[in-house]
Amino acid sequence: MRILVSAENFDSFAGMETYAQTVAQELLRLGHQASIFTPNAGTMAELTREKGIAVLGRADLPAGCDAILAQDASTCHELAVRYPEVVRVMVAHSRDHVLQEAPQLPEVCHGVVVLNDRVGRWMGARAWHPPLTRLRQPITLSRYSDLKAPRPRPRRVLVSSNYVAGPRGKLIEEACRQAGFETAWMGMTSEPSATPERELANADIVVGLGRCAIEGMAAGRAVYIYGVLGGGGWVTPRSYWQMEADGFAGLTDVRPTTVERMASDLRAWRGDMGEANRDLVSANHSARTHAVELVELVRRLDEQRSSAGSTAAGRATQRDRSRQMPTAAEEIARLLRLEWQAYMRGMRAILEANTLRSEHEPREASLRDALSRVATLDRELEGARARIATLEEHLVQARDRMAKQDAQLRALHSTRRYRLAGVMAAPFDALRARLR
């Protein structure tokens, strides 16, 4: 199928943008012709093009497509006018913005995907809504599979958030300080990153919400839920299900999060938390499984619309087109895009290896120099110890001689000649005293 993934804004390294890129990538791997439409391209669009995924503006839209996967109501409405016979599915990423409210016009959107129960309840409570399908937030597992394991004793906490700042940010830093951990930040309020796996590789614990939390879990890190909405504590196999239903939004624990509570929680870190999290993500958040579910949903909706009967001829034509084999040119283009993605991953790996090597070589030289200085100091220390031993021998000998002289002096004091000399010298000593 020719699937158009749409997003009103495609600039920031945020959850919706990352979702759109992830889904388009997996649809390409399934053999579909997937591209991304956005009226507002930016940094994320440039990064996505580098991965071999087409990012289109209004002037680039094709004459036809087989399905639309909209990330917001705005592009869903716009593309419904341009492609009236195409199945249109909207993914609701939030309940906090009008842009995320599903269209209430029946022919604009044929189905809505919700990624957690919290947004699903909100969407279901609307006066009218298209059929809802509950899926889970997808993660490209291979992106995080080869990261080094966390340290045996945790040292570094990564706060992954686009929104946490101010008092809540200070609370996290103070709690980490009291627990004995250093703090690093990643996100729009600190340091945005197109490669979160690099920052996660240097972390032992991740503090965050939503997709940031799932990425930390995929990286095999212990994850603590806390952010702008509230806190939930550690993600564990027991707490996962309630937190996932909440979208890892931090609303599962009504108790207030204080510095003392968070510091105490962080000190309770266990070494098995990271691998348990990785298993949970592998079983429930695979991007490849998610892409398959999306394709199945689109085909099911298409079948339902066709069976409804109205404009049957046009819909039958559309359905036949969606099932036809891709042309040779389309398949070659898809394969070339996949090859380009693999090439870019390889190039990034080479660049990262070169960067690490350039950082490692000076450190290795510095280490060799330090080891040489240590060896010199060891030799000097051994020489000093030898000199100290010699001096101690001389000191023992000097003490022996002094002891002998003291004995001789005491013996001299006990003789009659010494006492007589003292009596005879007494008048002269008295005279000298008066003369002074």
Report what the structure shows.
The chain is α/β, with parallel strands linked by helices and 436 residues long. It contains 14 helices and 14 strands. The strands form three sheets. Strands 5-3-1-6-7-8-9 form a seven-stranded parallel sheet, with helices on both faces. The longest helix has 86 residues, at 328-413. The mean pLDDT is 86.
Short description:
The chain is α/β, with parallel strands linked by helices and 436 residues long. The chain has helices at residues 15-29, 43-50, 73-82, 117-124, 166-179, 196-201, 210-218, 240-245, 259-267, 273-284, 287-308, 312-323, 328-413, 416-435, and strands spanning 2-6, 9-10, 33-37, 40-41, 55-56, 67-70, 87-92, 111-114, 132-134, 156-160, 182-186, 205-208, 222-226, 231-234.
Structure keywords:
436 residues; 5-stranded mixed β-sheet; 14 strands
SSE blueprint:
Blueprint: E1 2-6, E2 9-10, H1 15-29, E3 33-37, E4 40-41, H2 43-50, E5 55-56, E6 67-70, H3 73-82, E7 87-92, E8 111-114, H4 117-124, E9 132-134, E10 156-160, H5 166-179, E11 182-186, H6 196-201, E12 205-208, H7 210-218, E13 222-226, E14 231-234, H8 240-245, H9 259-267, H10 273-284, H11 287-308, H12 312-323, H13 328-413, H14 416-435
Parallel strand pairs: 1-3, 1-6, 2-4, 3-5, 6-7, 7-8, 8-9, 10-11, 10-12, 12-13
Antiparallel strand pairs: 13-14
Approximate strand percentage? 5-15%
Low-confidence stretches: none
User: What is the distance, rounded to the nearest whole angstrom, between the alpha carbons of the first and last residues?
Assistant: 123 Å
The description of the largest β-sheet is: 7 strands, parallel
Kindly provide the radius of gyration, computed on alpha-carbon positions and rounded to a whole number of angstroms.
38 Å
Question: Globular, elongated, flat, extended or rod-shaped: what is the shape?
Answer: elongated
- Average pLDDT rating: 86
Query: What's the order of the H and E elements?
Result: EEHEEHEEHEEHEEHEHEHEEHHHHHHH
Q: What proportion of the residues is helical, as a percent range? A: 40-55%
Biggest sheet, spatial arrangement of strands: 5-3-1-6-7-8-9
- How many runs of DSSP E, i.e. beta strands? 14
Helices, by number, come to: 14
* Helix/sheet category: alpha/beta
